[in-house]
Amino acid sequence: MKPLKVRISITLDEPIYQKIKGLAEYDDRSVSSYINLALRDHLEELEQHADQ
Description:
The chain is mainly alpha-helical. It has a domain at 28-52. Helix content is 65%, strand content 0%. The protein has two helices and no strands. It has helices at residues 14-26, 31-51. The radius of gyration is 13 Å and the shape is globular. The chain starts with 13 loop residues before the first helix and ends with a helix.
């Protein structure tokens, strides 16, 4: 079963959006999928630092 997704709306600075869009295209992902992956990685990193 697929994980539950929540639809949200966010506002990004244009330069940040352009960088994310380029990285997503390079990785053959949608912008939404790339942002989700980047946030997941960031949250895991924060949890690792909190455990130290």
